Amino acid sequence: MSKYTKEFIIPYYDTNKNGFVRPESLLSYMGETSSLHSDFLGVGIEALVKHNVVWMLNRWRVRFYKYPKALDKVTIGTWSSGINRFYATREFVIYDEDNEKVVEATTQWVFLDTLKKRPIRVPQELSQIYGTVVEKNLHDFYDFKDEFSTTSGIDFHVRKSDIDYNHHVNNVKYLNWMLEAIPSDIDDKYKLYELDIQYKKEIKLGSTINSSLTENREENFTYLHKITDGEELNAYGRTVWK
Fold it and tell me: What pLDDT score does 1 carry?
């Protein structure tokens, strides 16, 4: 099986004050679909942890074309678009009930040995199970450089409810923290159009993290984000608003 699809009905609690689904909820649906795809193929989380290996999400690149509302039905498609040594790319596309594209995304994942805490080569048999569809949505990940300065941001305490099934801070929480730092006038008048996230270092339960940002003056309504834990960099982000 090359592609996998799943339908979701958007609940009220996943919408914002204007009734539109939140971008972080759309990322959660895509993450859930990728897990269900792996379960369907017999190589889900429970199967992998028995061998002390796991897929760790490394990068998001997402483009949002429209935002459905509560009780709207969306269909999410996902597929493996390539596996190279330690890394794999996975694509996502979301359509609404009129078959109009809502979101497209490209992600990069790292295959990790959980005991040694380091990347290992993806086994050939696992590559064969997923198969490859040579079809990519967004070809280039954003080239983050540790050169941009950030304003003092917002502090967050990492809670037990932030930890997911993999015993890590859920990847969508990083987007929550980044969006909280967006100026209110931008958040009120514009919608998130494009998103890039690169995860750098794991955040521990009980940590206090800082979500800071700076406006990219070379691109209108574009912000560069950092998530830091003390002196350590945990994630980069980039958001574009329209």
Answer: 58
The pLDDT of 124-131, averaged and rounded, is 94
Of the candidates 51, 167, 52, the one whose C-alpha atom is nearest the C-alpha of residue 115 is 52
State which CATH number among 3.20.20.120, 3.40.1190.20, 3.10.129.10, 2.60.40.10 fits the domain covering 154-241. 3.10.129.10
Say whether pLDDT at 146 is over 90. Answer: no
**61 token code pair:** 């690149």
Per the prediction, the chain carries an average pLDDT of 94
* Geometric angle at alpha carbon 106, from 100 and 108, rounded to 5°: 160
Q: What is the pLDDT at residue 42?
A: 95
Domain layout of the chain by residue ranges: 3-130, 154-241
Per CATH, the homologous superfamily of domain 3-130 is Hotdog Thioesterase (3.10.129.10)
Helix axes 171-180, 23-40, angle to 10 degrees: 170
* CB contact at 8 A, 63 and 94: no
CA distances from 93 to 4, 17, 232, 240 (A): 11, 25, 33, 19
CA 182 to chain centre: 18
Q: How far apart are CA 43 and CA 45, in angstroms?
A: 7
Q: Is 198 helix (H, G, I), strand (E, B) or coil?
A: strand
Choice among 48-62, 66-80, 211-225 with the minimum mean pLDDT: 211-225
pLDDT of residue 152 exceeding 90: no
CA nearest 1: which of 42, 32, 60?
A: 42
Give the number of C-alpha atoms closer than 13 A to the C-alpha of residue 107, restricted to the C-beta side.
22
Q: How far is 38 from 25, CA to CA, in rounded Å?
A: 20
